[in-house]
Design a protein that fits this description.
138 residues; Dihydrofolate Reductase, subunit A; seven-stranded mixed beta sheet; three-stranded antiparallel beta sheet
Length: 138
């Protein structure tokens, strides 16, 4: 599986049971990146894609258990540490800001098991700079 998450500078994803931020351009980037593959997410994250008719969307609250190799999982409110051994790649979209956070992305991509293979900056609709970092399992 390929894990996708949006994080702040402290790896925060949520605060008080709400996503820290969202961005229309980021959603479009995720849909473009996952075109032709399955994109799994839970019902909470699916709300961001309301009205979207992308065929790759698969919504299931046990999505991390359902994803097969090569399929994408978009996480916002799910602990992923348990699934690290099945992750082939991690794609982090960084807000380049520090938000209040009480739920964080819980895989340490600085460990030797992960290698940064690609970075890309782009302008979002709500953030002037979003950084995409792609980590491959070493």
């Amino acid at each position: 599986m390929i894990i996708i998450a949006a994080v702040d500078d402290r790896n925060g994803m949520m605060f008080n049971h709400r996503r820290q931020s969202q961005d229309k351009v980021l959603r479009e980037k995720i849909l473009s990146l996952t075109a032709g593959k399955l994109l799994w997410m839970d019902h909470y994250s699916a709300k961001q894609f309301d009205g979207c008719t992308a065929p790759q969307l698969n919504i299931d609250d046990r999505f991390m258990w359902e994803a097969a190799p090569g399929e994408y999982c978009f996480v916002e409110d799910t602990s992923v540490a348990h699934f690290e051994k099945w992750a082939e790649q991690i794609i982090l979209f960084k807000w380049n800001r520090k938000y209040p956070g009480d739920f964080c992305f819980d895989i340490d991509v600085q460990k030797p098991e992960w290698k940064l293979s690609h970075t890309e900056d782009f302008a979002g609709s709500s953030h002037e700079k979003i950084t995409m970092e792609v980590y491959d399992h070493a």
